[in-house]
Amino acid sequence: MSTHNDSYGAAWLAALTDHAEPLAGYPASVRVIDAELGHRAARYIAVVPDSQARFPRARAGEVGLAEGWALARALHDAVEADESAAHKRVIVAVVDVPSQAYGRTEEAYGLHQALAAAAEGTIRARRAGHPVVTLIAGKAMSGGFLAHGYQANRLVALSGEGVQVHAMGKQAAARITQRSVEGVEQLAREITPMAYDIDSYERLGLLHARLDIAPTASDDAKAVERVRQALADAVADIGDTRDLSARIGQGERTATAAVRQRLAEVWAG
Amino acid sequence: MQTLSFDYPAGPPAARRALAGVVGSGDLEVLLEPGDSGRTTVAIATSVDGVDEIWRAVIDRIFADDGLPALKVEINDFGATPAVVRLRIAQAMEQTSPEARHD
Amino acid sequence: MTDVAALLQRQSFVELPARSRCQHLLDDADQRELLGPFERLTSPWLPKQNIVTQSDDGVVIMRGTLGDTKVVIAAVEPAFQGGSMGEVGGAKIAGALACALADAENGDPVVPILLLETGGVRLQEANCGLAAIAEIHDMIVALREHGPVIGVITGPVGCFGGMSIAAGLCSELIVTREARLGLNGPQVIEQEAGVDEFDSRDRPMIWSLLGGEQRVATGLAEALVGDDVAAIRDLLARHVTASPKPLARTTDIARFEALLETVAPTERATARTTRDAFAQTTGAA
Lengths: 269, 103, 285
Known about the structure:
The structure holds 3 protein chains of 3 kinds. By secondary structure, chain A is an alpha/beta fold.
């Protein structure tokens, strides 16, 4: 097993698990490590770059077909193994995903379905009583984030350059919205949900915690300890809850709160 | 985007509210609601800038007749031609008349 | 001659706007739109970008019955902003599903029907759309414990982005030949991977791989239906009474991983090779 870590996700996964060996039986791009968080059993999962990956359009850390189904399996197996356990293991998703894979083969063989299976894996784990925490350690982009990390009970993020959440890369966003890249950047400065930076994302009320720690700090023992503590705090905060209610309608998502409240009023008629 | 507003003398308030169209390419959405007695107001948001005079002409021709019921008109336009504007307003107005099926 | 007559009598579903789609699918009595256009819950983000809003933000939520079954339809308006999911429209769908879930947990199920004519996240509201879509995913999976959650894709937009994942989570997926279902829209793939990988103007290729017929043939959708209001309504009426059951499309992981082993990743996928691979490993087609 190489100790070379070529993404923030790989580096933080290794740091948080004291460089434990990933479980066998997964593609090299999906690292699954059973370790601890606090004194509780935890399954850590990260999607990482693999320059030799079978599918060429998913070699830079994207969530592709193989990654989607492997994520689904890692989650499904954890739920099954803990089915009758009193304390179900924590799931920690370490996220640094530049995007989903873009390719013809990917679409033909149902990449949307692979990502649905991965998202469902986390949803089922959370709803079965596994506390699920996501560490956004780099990019959390689009379908990649929907498949890996977004379904956690709590989202915890590092800060600064390189930590980003968005629905689409700037180039593609510019083309699809018929704007220049500069135009997209300008709007991102003015419209909170259009921004790529994590500070703007935090204003949408979706984060449980944002740590003033750079993604490059994974070799700093104090930083790693602070991240561990933050993840453990998030698990404590989850308690027995199993839904996403803690982050719905917070921050600048005031329209979300208004719509939800109005719907609850008129639903029964 | 540009916003425009017009108002016209009118009769008693319209019987009910109505909706026609969608904010799709070359189309528009028209929302009609009963207005204050004696006055129709028209508020337009359009994706096309600089065509105020065309809008005024189209809207004048429809609402300048002060025998019409009073309406609060909202238009959200995505580049509709005057013909489509007239069609959508007519479709909506037909639904506000007292004989129209209530839905 | 009778075929032509039947064709002429057909009412197109694809050509209907979202609100009419709901009205045509539900029984005439007791239709009730929630958060309709006159409540004016519009996008707070589009006017800041000088973009005209629509009074329902492009999503119609309508309750009613289909036969003896209580249903709620969430319909995306394909003509408004490409059927994209903004904060308000996304919250309308997620919120309606949350209400349906609360009812189901209280023993009073309401079957959700999602009309998924959508390009996915509305990029002008990017992170708000993405968050809402995650919340929709969660609700679909939770609701499936109680009964069917039915997705319908008919065209003209197709179903892409995060909402294609929502489609993949539905317990039954109904599609037409005109429908397309895929994670990335053709333009986005071409932008990111180049025209050699994916030519967004090659319509026959796109429909052969992402079209409704192919998705049914490979088991990624359950039923193919014509562009006909009555046929879609009849099919839905049969599906809304289905019992909850595990969904092979998301839980039969071993079958899909076996399928991937048979794929030659650098060979250009065609409709035929894809169907053959699915047929050999998953028993579909």
